[in-house]
# Entry
Amino acid sequence: MKFGILVNEGPYTHQASDSAYQFTKAALEKGHEIFRVFFYHDGVNNGTRLSVPPQDDRHITNRWSALAKEHQLDLVVCVAAAQRRGLLDANEAKRNGKDADNIADGFRISGLGQLIEAGIQADRLVVFGD
Amino acid sequence: MSDEDMMDDEAGGGVVKKFLYVNRKAPYGTIYALESLEVVLIGAAFDQDVSLAFIDDGVYQLTKGQQTDGIGMKNFSPTYRALEMYDVEKLYVDQDSLTARGLNAEDLIVPVEVLNTTQMAELMETQDVVFSF
Amino acid sequence: MSIEINGQTIETDEEGYLTNLGDWNEDIAKVLAEQDELELTSNHWEVINFLREYYDEYQIAPAVRVLTKAIGKKLGPDKGNSKYLYDLFPYGPAKQACRFAGLPKPTGCV
# Structure
């Protein structure tokens, strides 16, 4: 089966990102395909390069980056939601006159069209949120 | 040509799915109502079969007379009236949610179809993609 | 960045959009157009005014397809098409016309 995954909440504050990660990992282990993981609302904060969580607990962002690298996953962050929350790549930072960017490895910023496309192309779109 | 215009040519590849946007949260208190609407507006360019459902506190997204100066936020309720021009016309509201809040369809800024619980469940059953924000 | 106009300093961002939408007036629109080497004709103003009215009513800048349809309805099919709008605003109604009209900068979310 081909899955689209939507993550609507930020890391640590809400279990959504953890659940999405565990589901994605389990689906891949069972041989399913993950078409795209799309991050919306505070979910965009899963894509920050700057988080420094305590060492004795999971590193949510790094975990996503590692899974993406291992399975060539497409991790997409919505540009509008990211702009609102200060999640930028180098291009967005330049375009908007900001002095830094903070996007993590393996994540890319794009439009909501990528989410709609995931809905169209996947057999099932699973939403993780509040 | 802009990204938007190019999308019109290749949107969806001809596949048309039933997309349902479920809205259960009141506007302004949280971001979900506004950002859900933003997905609908972008998604409209993909020519899918779109419906919106307003349930629980989600019905408050559509009430008339929203005045937000006091909270310093943008009143975005007028944008729901633009949906028609985006060919998004199937708006469903849950009967029990209205009743529990002392509201009826006349209190809302756009024409809607009011559904009871069974009908709402039947609607959801028919959908291919269900977004919940 | 800033523009000097009628003795006032008006702030714009990296891409030439007004920092404060409340600063907008017709003279500013002309200056913004001049930056793109465009002179605003009555045809340009028709679209600019249409955009401002649309934004006033619906609190959003319309998507290109919606704008084209709506202009076609109001001003006729010879104006309600992509070619006409792109002839007037080569960088596109969404980006360029909205900038001249003092509407919020698009997020680029498509």
Remarks:
- Strands of chain B lie at 18-23, 49-54, 90-94, 113-115, 129-132.
- Chain B touches chain A at residues 3, 7, 12-13, 15, 17, 19, 31-32, 35, 38-39, 42-43, 45-46, 48, 128-133 (CB under 8 Å).
- Chain B has four helices and five strands.
- The CA atoms of residues 25 and 31 of chain B lie 9 Å apart.
